[in-house]
Write a structure and sequence with these properties.
Rossmann fold; Four Helix Bundle (Hemerythrin (Met), subunit A); alpha/beta; five-stranded parallel sheet
């Protein structure tokens, strides 16, 4: 029998993958952390490994490096799951010897099973690239698009010349995945009340606790809950929920690693994101493929700030047009319709408040959400931003991922609730 090892810290996701593989006559073992995974590799001697990068005790990158350092496991195919908002980990995984990298929020069971089928049964992806569902690059700029992943694995990571591959039985036929898709959808929807209640309970514990060690524990638990939600939503094809939860997952991870950045702004962003996930559970539907690329305008007269905002948007696979002159921006919004406008407040000639007021007077962008990113963080300026038509507010200096989450939220809200006012 063909042996597959799954290293995944979420028991439900591990069970889903195990069920998929066992239906195709694979023999499967699971474990929930990298250190145990290394022990299991030695005992189980798998023909291939499914590996989540975000693991306790030893993350997936460390696991890959230690695995590839052992000659007997240098050729074992390893299919890696990661988060679209962690491009550095994607590159590290490829360098460490991942055979294929997928965005956990959007990979389908069929993609996964096809990839394993080809890697395990001796077809070298380098010679048959069309057979491997490689992850598309950041070209479309769409919300919900898959993250760029590794290229087809190098020949030395294939199984074409492997003695272990030669001893495998003939590849079994591939079953229809429609039944599995329906089961994933049903189980995800059935768990909706419990999922939302669990997220809100953990959010309240994180927001209200005053003791720092206790706060960190609640933050870590919230991160793990959102981390699991990302994969489950992706498998059930709820791409909108997977998109926002994967961004929130990264913010929670960074706050856990850098607690000095836990402040009023980041707490508010976490709370808004959890509540928006609750809204999406009631409004979004499963979908496949990408939606049209959103049009985003960034207006900031400071070049460094403007570049930082553009970079933050790119982390969410969002392409934008950036201008420094608010008068040029006003001319653009009078002629074109945008899905999101990001404004600074302090700008020469026309400040952000005045520009936002003028935007609201234009029929083409009357309901386009406006996100203020500014160093003016006092209550008076926050209130004025709301009064003039701003949809949300981020304080400088900012976490890149915080701007990403705000942008993705506002764009999704505009698409899913098109009749709602921008502010």
């Amino acid at each position: 029998m063909t042996r597959i090892l799954i290293i995944e810290d979420d028991a439900i996701i591990g069970h889903i993958y195990r069920t998929c593989l066992e239906k195709e006559n694979y023999t499967v073992e699971t474990c929930n952390d990298g250190r145990t995974g290394l022990d299991q590799v030695r005992e189980f001697d798998p023909h291939a490994i499914l590996l989540d990068l975000m693991l306790p005790t030893m993350n997936g990158i460390e696991f890959l490096k230690k695995l590839r350092a052992q000659i007997q496991f240098a050729a074992v195919p390893v299919v890696v799951f990661t988060n679209a908002y962690l491009p550095n980990m994607i590159k590290e995984a490829t360098s460490a010897g991942a055979s294929q990298v997928y965005n956990k929020a959007s990979v389908t069971p069929k993609q996964l099973l096809d990839c394993l089928h080809f890697l395990v049964y001796g077809i070298n992806p380098a010679s048959a690239p069309s057979l491997i569902p490689s992850i598309p690059q950041h070209s479309s700029g769409t919300v919900g698009a898959e993250t760029p992943g590794s290229p087809p694995p190098p020949a030395n990571y294939g199984y074409v010349a492997s003695a272990k591959a030669a001893s495998l039985p003939q590849a079994p036929p591939r079953p229809d995945g429609a039944f599995l898709d329906s089961q994933l959808y049903k189980s995800f929807v059935a768990a909706k009340p419990e999922t939302i209640a669990g997220l809100r309970d953990l959010l309240q514990e994180f927001m209200n606790v005053g003791d720092e060690p206790a706060r960190d524990r609640h933050l870590l638990e919230l991160y793990r809950k959102v981390h699991a939600l990302t994969a489950r939503a992706g498998l059930a094809k709820f791409a909108d929920i997977a998109q926002i939860s994967s961004a929130l997952e990264v913010l929670l991870k960074e706050l856990h690693e850098q607690p000095k950045h836990i402040n009023v702004s980041t707490r508010r962003t976490v709370a808004q994101s959890v509540e928006f996930i609750g809204e999406l559970f009631n409004a979004s539907q499963p979908r496949c493929g990408d939606v049209p690329a959103p049009r985003i305008l960034v207006v900031d007269d400071d070049v460094l700030s403007r570049r930082a905002i553009v970079h933050a948007l790119e982390r969410g696979n969002l392409k934008s047009t950036a201008v420094e002159d608010p008068m040029v921006a006003l001319q653009m919004v009078s002629e074109e319709q945008f899905d999101l406008i990001v404004l600074d407040i302090q700008m020469p000639g026309l400040d952000g408040f005045e520009l936002c007021t003028n935007i609201r007077a234009l029929p083409s962008n009357q309901n386009t959400p406006v996100l203020f990113v500014t160093s003016l963080t006092d209550f008076k300026n926050r209130a004025r931003a709301t009064v003039c038509g701003g949809a949300d507010f981020v304080a400088k200096p900012f976490f890149f991922i915080e701007v990403t989450i705000k942008a993705v939220t506002l764009i999704l809200r505009k698409r899913l609730f098109p009749r709602a006012k921008a502010a």
